[in-house]
Amino acid sequence: MKINDVILQTITKVVVFIILTFGVELFFAGHNSPGGGFIGGLVLSSAFVLLFLVHDIETVQQGIPVDFKKVAATGVLFAVGTGVFAVLFGSAFLTQTFLTVNLPVYGETELATVLLFELGVALTVVGTVVTIILSISEDV
Amino acid sequence: MFTITMAIFIPFLAAIFVPFIYKWKPRAIGWFVLIFPLLLFIGLARLIPAVAKGDTISHTFQWIPSADIHFTTYLDGLSLIFGLLITGVGSLVILYSIYYLSSRESLGHFYVYLLLFMGAMLGVVFSDNMMVLYVFWELTSISSFLLIAFWYHRKQSRYGAQKSMLITVSGGIAMLAGFIMLYAMTGSFSIRENIAAVSQITDHVLFIPAMILVLLGAFTKSAQFPFHIWLPDAMEAPTPVSAYLHSATMVKAGIYLVARFTGVFGGDAVWFYVVSSVGIFTLFWGSFNAVRQTDLKALLAYSTISQLGLVMSLFGLGSAALYEGYSGSSVVYAQATFAALFHLLNHSTFKGALFMVVGIVDLNVGTRDVRRLGGLMAFMPVTFTIALIGSFSMAGLPPFNGFLSKEMFFESMIAVRQLEFFSIGSWGTLFPVLAWIGSVFTFVYSMIIVFQTFFGPHQPERLDRKAHEAPAGMLVAPSILGLLVVAIFFFPNVVNDYLLRPAMAAVYPSLSGIGEAMPKIEAWHGPNIALWMTVGVIVVGILLYVSFKYWRSMYKVEPLRWSLDSVYNGSLTMLEKGSTLLTNRYMTGYLRHYLIYIFGFFLLAVAGTMTLVGGVSFDFSNDSPIEANEYILVSVMMITGILMIFISSRVTVILLNGVLGYSIALFFVIFRAPDLALTQIVIETVTTALFLLCFYFLPEMKKEKPARSSKVVNGIIAISAGVIVTVLGLAVQGNKMFDSIASYFENAYELTGGKNIVNTILGDFRAFDTMLEVVVLFIAGLGVYTLVKLKPRKEERDLED
Question: Model's pTM, two decimal places?
């Protein structure tokens, strides 16, 4: 039986970008509003899962030739690395700091090192979730 | 700025770059790695004058202050000697390994492991905090495991690696328990603070247990009897590794520990007896067994065991100096420690050289069996010279450094007889006797190395390859060690002034000026007993060597053939069988059984605690009223939950499970937790997809017809688990055991710059938790990946079994 999923595929093309944008938005909003690395990462990975469900794995991997294991590893490196970085500056492990600057377009913007930490969290979540789903689905 | 803390981390950082460099220039990797120990050696060597003046360098950064675990590095004379050994011998070994290992080997792995080890070992000797020391201690065991199993396709390598790991790690755990006991007594993990507080704890109940546990760690690591059995099997490692880890550095970690803790436990009779008698017996047993070995590396392994025993026994005797403060007699006993430190250094030079020589012979002719070797002197003159220097030094002959420390060893052993405390009595005579017998055997096996390998008839037909001299680069490292052996003999007091005296002060922090009280090391000190003992060793040793083939059969006598190896193997097999039996008993393969275990344990633990603690009280007075929509949500969830039991289609069950999850998300919305609601919704979506994916591969669900009784039991467990959770939830709501920690987060915005308090907790206040969660998540992902993807295919296995 051949499943006809033209409607799903067409909608996905648009929706995936909305989800991805939402994920990025959640990620950046994290420090002041609901969101953050974990949720952002989960939303991003749900977008990938949707892609994998709608298209087959080969097609998606041609479009996004990324090894998600490496994405996860990079994430862990970021999360642990920010902690070590704080030690190099003489603070305790994982000390985070922040800075408020005035950027031309955005106005008053807060730059926090916790963003790097959260980036690590997000990358690990994306990498791990996609790796798990891919390895199970490829195992036939 | 070069700091000791940096010295520990430089090898680890270098290890990160090794794989990249290896990909880029696989041939240059050895030279790249060589830079780091060399730089570290130079950096440490520059500190020698300062330390010789009596300075110590200490640096602390707070690691886990709440648990009194600080990353404190501490450099004094003792750790400096070890630091120089680790980096110095490390440089030479890496230089040697560049020529020893062919470029076909996986050099990337090799150098990563080696650098890991180097960093860990530096961590052991430079850490003042016992917990940090323990972490590095186990890390040396792990890197040693990886290096022994470097040729992991060989069964013997895997066996040796496992054996060394099991023995040293169990010892390490005992040591950890000892450290925790010390903490319980003194309230500090700092070794220096423990030494300072020692007078208050000597009568404590835990003092002796702590001492024994710490010693277990030291003895397993330093291959002392009866834990020595792992060292001969560790010789399966590539020879540079044996030279580095299993003779010069790692096995000396136990000795370092004993030296370091002499300040804590030193004045006690138990410490004195255990350390010195285990050491002296190990010396005897190791040398006695070395003589019967035919494999040169096995011979060197037993010889290392015996030499470690020698150093250990000297530290044991030296601890007597702490018995009655600073006095004339304490100087006499402290000389044992002085000899120990000196011999430690000398042993690293001559044994390192010997290991490298054996590696050269093995590589060139394809065997290390003394029965097949012989007459190599003409083919390998340089190698022969180094072997001669190393062996004669080991045998205690002049003009090599081994002679000096051997003489000092004999003198200390004789001094034991004059010991008036610890009720030693006539037992003291046993020490010089065992020492002398051990030295005779040492002499015999040293001669075996030289004469059976390089003299006698050459047997080319029994060798795999034609004998020839090694390339010049390979000879550099052993030649440097050989030169040191001779140089130390002629200029011992340079070593004495710059290294040994400051180290003495470090071993005996309570005896000020003990380093200066040590005599100058003299090659000739008149015809005293020690010298006659050496002459006796030479005479009897030569006789025994010449008549070796007549008394060789002695090793076949029954009690001498008993080996501790069979004890180890037997207990390992029994352990495996026992655990298989036990595991098969409860691992039935039925998911419902496992659920029964989990919930059964939960019920037992939680309900048991509740009844023990004395009932549960409820207090609903502060609760807000329950709204209508909340009633609706709860009833939806209840109906869904009950429905799930009766549905036989998997997909429907998954979807109903999703209903439960989304309802919880709605609750989060109602209770104004948008972060949680968001997370819950996305998680629910992703897991539903994951479930569907997994269940796609499963067959149709079949209705099972379990017996009525098991149905009833399962029902009871299920319902009571639910009841317990509900009761727990209600009880928690009404009771407060601790003050609220909310005030801690009140000025979150000022501290972190974030307005979302949930995320400031996750990322700023409790970042450690989050970081570890991330790591756990990653490991879980890798676990799934490896389980699914890397199933061993039968035809691809090329391992020996």
Answer: 0.81
